[in-house]
Fold this protein.
Amino acid sequence: MKPKCIMLVATEASGDLLGANLIAALRARLGAGVRFVGVGGPRMAAEGIASRFDPTSLALIGLFNAVAAYPRVLRRVRETADLARREAPDTAILIDAWGFNVRVAHALRRVDPHMKLIKYVAPQVWATRPGRARTLARAVDHLLTIHAFDAPYFEAHGLATTFVGNPALARDLAGADPARLRAQIGAAKDDPILLVLPGSRQGEIERLMPPFQEAIATLMVERPGLKVVIAAAPSVADEIKARVAARPSPVRVIEGETAHRDAMLAATVSMACSGTVTTELALAGCPMVVAYRLGPLTAAVAKRLIRTPYITLINVAAQAFVAPELVQSACTGPALATRVGRLLGDPKARTAQIAAQSAALAIMRGDVADPIAAAADAVVRILRREPHRK
């Protein structure tokens, strides 16, 4: 039998991690003969994906940024299709990144109408733009969704959908060591620590770092013993360091997965950009204040489209503001300092929020014990053309 060839396409840091873990799980199931090709970042590269281009330039935020980058997006879509034409994969797994990957799906369909196309992570049609469910159903053969509440939206349009669980809920923090982080930043055992997570995209850094830095400055004056740590994703580490250097203070910038995990367990409170990291903070038992900003024009469009009051998944699951959210005009330095300061100064409030975050995680987890294993098993069934299992 001809060895299987699987294409994976991921353009964002979270998708790169999903792709790398999925490759390892598929290799364990399909044997050493399986080939992997596609587009990804450093984690997928470590698993053998030799990406033709750096996908970080495609990690766009905002309608108008996306419009400006459209020619580049189309060029990258063509390059991805050319790769499929050369490598002839049996299936393509398109990870998150709705705008790019739906175009890739159409391009791959033209390359090979018989190639199995799998979308891994659904667009958030429960929050905005429900028409994307119909669009996706026309573009791919199968959807692997990380949220149990996604399926009805897509199955209504005939798209086979499998709930595989959210891998962020299975993150292993057993090796993390909060004492190691405290030693690294010179914090005593009882010193309060504020962990700041400003995002992994350039637009997030540009919009969130100014109010974050303003809040940090206020909090450090109000609480002289406070230690502040900014966790920098590889894609924006240089930008964050430059911004911190421009406003000298005792703030520490940390890099690397080990340091990030240590910091999540060591932190007293976190101030975080909305995204996957908020789920990881909840898993670590770290109370958080969540922030987000879009450009003004994009925000005006989004305001007409968004159908939910929540932007944070634990809040969506709980249908309540378990973690405070400061969005757009509410996301200011003084407002952030006030919300974070309340948590820093009130142990009972922190305990109550941690308990509520844990309850929301239980709702999100469902009955899936190992999300990556569930996703790999679903891909294998699709490759073998076994019946769809809900």
User: Anything to note?
Assistant: The mean pLDDT is 90. The radius of gyration is 21 Å.
